[in-house]
Design goal:
The chain has 216 residues and is α+β, with helices and mostly antiparallel strands. The chain has one domain: 3-Layer(aba) Sandwich (Glutaredoxin), CATH 3.40.30. Strand 3, helix 2 and strand 4 form a beta-alpha-beta unit. It is globular.
């Protein structure tokens, strides 16, 4: 259920009622253009021995926040041949750059599991401004963490490297909307007219199985 850059905070209703896009139905029941589209050119994953699934998201995206608990529970059940990674987008904007930095800083600090959904909720539900470093550190302190130590991590070389890799992936995978799921660097999950996020993940499962079958 992607949000385009121009309407990043727009409502979900229009997408859920999107018109059916006709296409050829494959043996797995998926229809190109409705359920998925090809990424052109295909992009190699980090580990060719595994099927890579990437979720591109932003803490400022309410749909990403709604999907987050579901996709994390889904990821916990994935078989060993699937590698799932989350990638925060920036779209070249300073505010979203800070949100991506926040994600990687939480990851490096070991606080991601504790505060990940809380960041989504603070921004998209409570309307807390977490788009600047100053406001982020104030919020971090309210969560009981050491703001000074977190600030050092926020501006660390490790976060800078992770952010650079995220930007490179965002460009290579041609991301123009979030949430966006890419399977094996080949398939972009579209999900036009899906009823809910579980259906979106169902399409992802079917594409993973398609890749698995092709490799065999």
């Amino acid at each position: 259920m992607p949000i385009k850059r121009r309407d990043f905070l727009a409502g979900l209703a229009g997408f859920l009622t999107a018109a059916f896009i006709p296409g050829a139905r494959a043996d797995d029941g998926l229809v190109e253009g409705r359920d998925w589209r090809a990424l052109s050119p295909p992009q190699a994953g980090a580990d060719q021995e595994q099927i890579e699934v990437l979720e591109f998201f932003s803490y400022g995206c309410p749909h990403c926040g709604s999907l987050n608990p579901l996709i994390k529970a889904w990821a916990e059940q994935l078989p060993d041949d699937v590698n799932f990674r989350r990638v925060p987008v920036t779209f070249g904007r300073a505010a979203w750059d800070n949100l991506a930095r926040l994600y990687y800083a939480l990851e490096l600090e070991g606080s991601l599991a504790q505060l990940d959904q809380a960041v989504f909720d603070a921004i998209t539900q409570d309307r807390v401004n977490l788009y600047t470093e100053k406001n982020i550190l104030k919020w971090i302190e309210r969560q009981g963490l050491d703001a000074d130590a977190f600030g050092k991590t926020f501006n660390s070389f490790g976060v800078e490297v992770a952010l650079g890799r995220a930007r490179e992936l965002e460009s290579r995978m041609q991301i123009d909307a979030v949430p966006r799921i890419i399977v094996d660097g080949r398939y972009v999950v579209v999900g036009e007219g899906v009823r809910d996020y579980e259906d979106l993940l169902g399409i992802t499962d079917a594409l993973v199985q398609r890749v698995r079958t092709a490799r065999r």
